[in-house]
Amino acid sequence: VCIFFFSRVLECQGLPIVNGQCDPYATVTLAGPSRQTKVKKKTNNPHFDEVFYFEVTRPSSYNKKSHFDIEDVDEVDKMEIRVDLWNASNLKFGDEFLGELRLPLKFLRQSSSYEAWYFLQPRDNGNKSLKPDDLGSLRLNVVYTEDHVFSSDYYSPLRDLLLKSADVEPVSASAAHILGEVCREKQEAAIPLVRLFLHYGRIVPFISAIANAEVKRTQDPNTIFRGNSLTSKCIDETMKLAGMHYLQVTLKPIIDEICQVHKPCEIDPVKLRDGENLENNRENLRQYVDRIFTVITKSGVSCPTVMCDIFFSLRESAAKRFQGDLDVRYTAVSSFIFLRFFAPAILSPNLFQLTPHHPVSTVSIFSSYVYGSANFKESYMATFYDYFNEQKYADAVKNFLDLISSSGRRDHKSIEQPILLKEGFMIKRAQGRKRFGMKNFKKRWFRLTNHEFTYQKSKGDHPLCSIPIENILAVERLEEESFKMKNMFQVIQPERRVLYIQANNCVEAKDWIDILTKVSQCNKKRLTVYHPSAYLNGHWLCCKATADNTPGCTPCTGGLPANIQLDIDGDRETERIYSLFNLYMSKLEKMQEACGSKSVYDGPEEEEYSTFIIDDPKETYKTLKLIIEGVGTLEQEHAQYKRDKFKKTKYGSQEHPIGDKSFQTYIRQQSEISAHSI
């Protein structure tokens, strides 16, 4: 059994004003880390309207890891949703607690949707000076859903229909896109769709298809991917799932240091505390920003492949749509990687497991100046940003975006020139099996793009050798004993051809190995073993094998993971999608009516149909018909399952032991239904 909770924090009224200000935010907790709303500035009547998703599974029906595991539904009844209200403060003691409410989940089993106003209550160890009546109130909407997951074959028709969405022309007529059209919130559709497509390896073509369609509808390059569309929500969810480890290795060390050292970073002269020096604070902030900037822009080789492939498709779509705008290929990617990925993690590191708690004031101040609301309207911010108004920073961002939006997979339809990733002089040994001699080592200018790895005599010369990226089977270090030379590595190609290269130093060698591994890690014929030493004088120095085509004797290091392994149950996600289609059946039927209207009437569109994107009414209608048929079939299976469960399952069995209140409730409900039908 899969249980989903949708908790919508709507609004508050009459929150207390603390120290002359009220910048409230709410945290919502079911189990594990809490989720946080955005901070609402200068109001004690904030309107949040933010949705948080929680998931609980029963191991008896789903034996894989999930967010929270329970043994039986009784445990769900014992759980409670807790909402805490806080005032965001820059004081050294941290944010002020304003009040809380606790909602036992047993109430939700009586109604699938529960909405009410609550008086905020004081916490046991909270501020005792505030009376309950002074805490204000909060309106909360919680949705409870419980799904039964069948075996895989039950979902084949609906699953197959969803998985071919990327191939449907136009993509707006696909099942996945239609789900996004009928759901109240795009995120409702994005969560199960992304998990399903990731599980079956179809996330990149699907996002590429819907992104390309969105770009075609965009008129102004400055507004590209700015809205909360299905594309944006799907990319957000993909980055959240595939990029969590990337965030950890990139940001956690510097965030930990900022939290531990507590250097003052306030540069607003009005907010300086006694004893603080403005110039010292500005230098502290500059150093932190510079270090954060550096770790991010040097992290491109760690960016997960699935994210790089998505960014490549965004770059391509934007460049094709706005060919006169050379910047749009970068802004299309930066709007996601910076504003929707790194920025939220820096602003709220506790929500991304970068810190265990909400950050202390130093981190809060730092993050607000890096990605927050501070802007050039304040003179002190304009002065501060002058530090970073240098070409080296612009070049670093450009190189980073080039790397994460490049792909080793060739697209012959691409209008983009190959993206230059790295170049420089190194020393290489001639390829082949000639007798060893110093004459075989020559200095050459190497150049790496997302298409090929080449070398020539000097920069700008015609290439002497070109290795397509798809022919790079492994990139590994070469043991020093091979040629008595340090900082060497090898590029292994088909038919056991090996290019031996010496970099200028160990740092350069690592950089070349990392970036070559990055662009080639999705090659289908990548090796699993290699020879760490060279083949000289008729044998491999490492394993002494005499045949030059002997398979490697050492496992490849692998470098960076080509694919993120996620624990996803495709059947469970398909069941969730079925439940959404079933929930919004009236909208599916309304969309069918809209298709009919568009097919026979070419005049002004009726207002009730204008919310749907329908590019091809006939294709969309065909897909809608298949969706409704598939949902109807599954609905019948669920009804039959409930009838069989009521008839066959014995109270006191292993499946439903005595004391199982959920089963008792179910029996009572079924009895009432039977009596009513009689």
TrEMBL record:
Chain ranges of the PH domain: 419-521
Q: Which UniProt keywords apply?
A: GTPase activation, Metal-binding, Repeat, Zinc, Zinc-finger
Q: Known Pfam families for this protein? A: BTK, C2, PH, RasGAP
Transmembrane segments annotated in the record for this chain: none
At the top level, the lineage of the source is Eukaryota
Q: Is ATP-binding one of the keywords?
A: no
In this protein, which residues make up the domain named C2? 1-118
Task: Name the InterPro entries on file.
Answer: C2_dom, C2_domain_sf, PH-like_dom_sf, PH_domain, Ras_GTPase, RASA3_PH, RasGAP_CS, RasGAP_dom
Instruction: Name its GO BP terms in alphabetical order.
Output: intracellular signal transduction; negative regulation of Ras protein signal transduction
UniProt-recorded Gene Ontology molecular function terms: GTPase activator activity; zinc ion binding
Residue span(s) of domain Ras-GAP: 185-359
What is this protein identified as?
RASA3 protein
